[in-house]
Amino acid sequence: MRKILPAVLVAAALGLTGCAEKELYGGLTEREANEMVAVLQNANVSASKSSKDGKVWALKTRAEQFSSAVAVLHDQGYPRDKFESLGEVFKKEGFVSSPMEQRARLMYGLSQELSQTISSIDGVVQARVHIAVPEADPLAEQQKPSSASVFIRHNPDVDLSGQVGSIKALVTNSIEGLPYDKVTVVMFPAKPVMVATPASPIRSFTMPAIAILAAIGGVGAYVFSRTSRGKPRRKLKTLAEPGTPAA
Question: Does any domain span residue 88?
């Protein structure tokens, strides 16, 4: 019985941890956490947020729904990409950059800011802007024009085809010397949100309940066996058969 009791308690603990929450992502802002909770709950996936200091937030879900939560968030472009601003790209450092490095930083900073701006358009799940600016050749009679490509992954329920002209104008006016017809915008629909089947309340309750009942039964059996050992056992007298003299 001493060996049975620890095993029963371990089984109860495992049953109770089956309904525990597991962290999905950490280091989130409250806005990011709220958006991700809303996306998961709309897909019938359990989600909650928590924070120790009110500044950095963590996203959690039920352990059995962890893989579904990751898939839903990935299809909707979460966690969102982090973009750098021109100020961050050109932050002061202790050494002087070469003109080529300064130019590369400028192109990178512009692409980052344009990607962030386009990502904020309603219906856009993910956006990238790639800029190609050829070096000026003083000996060439005609300089090669700059070009830009815009990649957009959007919500399949949102039609952004009417916004292509506005997006091209945004990129053209942000980069000096970039012709309008040298901007290419390609769009791809994201996967539709797969709504998960809600977990049955009976099923969610069954395993913890069985574990608790098993633990209670095991403890009760253990206590009964311990208390019954100290009591003297009564000897039962054997009834003599008819016609047999009593001893």
Answer: no
